[in-house]
């Protein structure tokens, strides 16, 4: 079941591009499903791929995935939003070991990916397309499902790593896994500290560095009491300290004025989930019951002082029943309450109860059809039904045709509804429809895999922060009409030689608001290409390039007569990264990695800087 760490799912795809059809996928149907039977577009990333990449921040790896892009305010720790098929983080559910990690105090409830380190991650599934019928309202664009480290087998193992590098960066992590035939426990602690860069772009004369410090602890455990009953739990805690620059309307981001307090935010996030799996009827009827709690707090000093406190408690039941070889069912129910409070006067709570059912039918060999219905009862907006349908057809050996359709809704966040000055209690949920179709093809005994997808995502009555002429101030408003996102996702990988692997992807996204203007911070073109070389004994060399073009954002240095600011096109950029890993012994690896080696000066958010060329050296151990 969907408890965040099934052993059967640990054999994943080896890159973040095209999907191997032999992979087991959990997120697509909330129960383990062969990739060949999944009708949704999904990318699976395994531990080996993550370790080879040697990234520090989760977002830096996810940025390679087709359909995803990131916009960040400054360097490490800066506010980050992920875009999936042109929809921002408020439309994407992010889970870690089954814990929903979105922040209820944000202006739009969303996960803070800028604070997520990658050192304890075992596996990532990125499920694209509307999944509200399975996961609820926040999964309008898709789901990012993360599993933390699992034991390789019975026994005790340790892992450790240290790294130093540019911008005064120092990081270290340690992990422990212990397992028997029926039980396991995994612990991980990681710290990353950097002096950072100027959040406000240095090309505008800003020189003050904005540092970042992150400590993250995670743990998971499970024990099987008998053949039918298993209990499990997961815990996660993160403390992060980030500095940031001033923002002046009509000027844009800028260093703090000398002599004034530094802008700084210290935050803590903690999540816990416990539950049990019960298998009945010789394993044909599987049940999972769990409860989770997530709490986030942050305090900001300087020019924007404030304290924010949010939490979410959720009780969830998931079940699946296989009637025969042709027909299976998935079903579930959940209840969640989330609250948001701030020193600014924000105070609100939202309750939501939901239930879903899905049927999976294999009427003929090679064809899998699913249909799902869900109803959510929101404490403010009442009932809201959603639906999803998928089809996967294995046309030939190594060829899969797939399609998915779904409806979704995003209710306004607590901030959008209840915040003083900016909140608007007249807002209604956004509604959406999603459709995609594609093909996954493998050749050469699986050494070459290709994937192509066309997609569209339409959202009605988008909620945006805009100037309200009636109120004479900025606030959250409903924008009538249909916002449209259309695009193509291409991905491929090939084991060209025993010592050479290549991969690449391209995403085209056309994202427009109801009036035809572009949705901001969504690149029209994004391409990645990578090569991994193992020609030299004990040495692995990885090189990767990323090209981004035609992305737009608001230029806040200019104020127009209607108090708005113009939209500008951000310059295109190309990033070149490289990583070299040398195995010193069976225990120790030495790593040298370079990022933005061409020293590109670029922006993903207007007026904010990004790190230039940087180099890092590290030592890792397994014992």
TrEMBL record:
InterPro entries, sorted: Beta-barrel_TonB, Beta-barrel_TonB_sf, Plug_dom, Plug_dom_sf, TonB-dep_rcpt-like
Coiled coil feature spans: none
GO BP of this protein: siderophore transmembrane transport
Gene Ontology annotations for the cellular component aspect, listed alphabetically: cell outer membrane
CDD domains (UniProt xref): ligand_gated_channel
Membrane topology summary: Multi-pass membrane protein
Subcellular location: Cell outer membrane
Family per similarity comment: Belongs to the TonB-dependent receptor family.
Annotated protein name in UniProt: TonB-dependent receptor
């Amino acid at each position: 079941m969907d408890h965040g760490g099934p052993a059967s799912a640990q054999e994943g795809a080896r890159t973040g591009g095209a999907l191997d059809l032999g992979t087991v996928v959990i997120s697509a149907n909330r129960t383990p499903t062969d990739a060949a039977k999944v009708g949704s577009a999904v990318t699976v990333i395994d531990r080996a791929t993550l370790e080879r990449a040697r990234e520090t921040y989760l977002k830096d790896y996810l940025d390679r995935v087709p359909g995803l892009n990131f916009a960040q305010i400054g360097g490490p720790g800066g506010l980050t939003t992920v875009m999936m098929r042109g929809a921002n983080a408020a439309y994407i559910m992010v889970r870690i070991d089954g814990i929903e990690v979105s922040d209820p105090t944000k202006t739009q409830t969303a996960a803070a990916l800028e604070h997520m380190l990658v050192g304890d991650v075992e596996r990532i599934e990125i499920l694209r397309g509307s999944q509200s019928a399975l996961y609820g309202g926040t999964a309008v664009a898709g789901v990012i499902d993360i599993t933390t480290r699992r034991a390789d087998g019975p026994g005790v193992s340790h892992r450790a790593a240290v790294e130093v590098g540019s911008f005064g960066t120092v990081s270290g992590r340690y992990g422990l896994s212990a397992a028997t035939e029926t039980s396991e426990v995994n612990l991980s602690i990681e710290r990353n500290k950097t002096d950072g860069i100027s959040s406000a772009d240095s090309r505008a004369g800003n020189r003050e560095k904005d540092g970042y410090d992150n400590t993250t602890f995670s743990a998971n455990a499970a024990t099987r009491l008998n053949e039918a009953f298993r209990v499990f739990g997961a815990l996660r805690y993160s403390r992060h300290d980030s500095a940031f620059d001033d923002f002046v309307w009509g000027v844009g981001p800028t260093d703090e004025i000398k002599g004034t307090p530094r802008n700084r935010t210290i935050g803590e996030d903690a999540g816990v989930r416990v539950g049990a799996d019960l298998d009945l009827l010789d394993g044909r009827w599987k049940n999972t019951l769990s409860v989770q709690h997530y709490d986030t707090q942050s305090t900001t000093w300087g020019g924007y002082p404030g304290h924010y406190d949010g939490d979410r408690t959720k009780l969830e039941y998931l079940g699946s029943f296989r009637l025969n070889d042709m027909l299976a069912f998935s079903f579930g129910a959940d209840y969640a309450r989330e609250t948001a409070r701030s020193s600014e006067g924000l105070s609100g709570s939202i309750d939501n109860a939901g239930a879903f059912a899905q049927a999976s039918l294999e009427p003929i060999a090679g064809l899998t059809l699913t249909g799902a219905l869900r109803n959510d009862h929101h404490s403010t907006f009442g009932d809201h039904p959603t639906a999803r349908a998928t089809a996967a057809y294995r046309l030939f050996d190594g060829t899969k045709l797939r399609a998915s359709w779904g409806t979704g809704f995003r209710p306004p966040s607590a901030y959008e509804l209840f915040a003083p000055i900016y909140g608007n209690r007249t807002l209604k949920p956004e509604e959406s429809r999603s459709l995609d179709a594609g093909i996954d093809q493998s050749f050469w005994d699986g050494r070459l895999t290709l994937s192509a997808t066309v997609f569209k995502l339409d959202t009605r009555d988008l909620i945006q922060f805009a100037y309200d002429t009636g109120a004479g101030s900025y606030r959250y408003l409903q924008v009538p009409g249909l916002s449209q996102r259309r695009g193509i996702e291409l991905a491929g990988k090939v084991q060209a030689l025993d010592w050479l692997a290549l991969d690449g992807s391209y995403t085209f996204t056309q994202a427009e608001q109801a009036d035809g203007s572009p949705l901001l911070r969504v690149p029209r073109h994004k391409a990645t290409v990578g090569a991994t070389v193992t020609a030299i004994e004990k040495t692995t060399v990885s090189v990767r390039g990323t090209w981004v073009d035609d992305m737009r954002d608001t230029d806040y240095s200019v104020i127009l007569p209607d108090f708005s600011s113009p939209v500008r096109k951000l310059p295109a950029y190309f990033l070149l990264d490289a990583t070299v890993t040398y195995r010193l012994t069976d225990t120790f690896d030495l790593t040298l990695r370079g990022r933005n080696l061409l020293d590109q000066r670029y922006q993903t958010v207007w007026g904010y800087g990004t790190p230039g060329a940087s180099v890092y050296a590290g030592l890792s151990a397994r014992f």
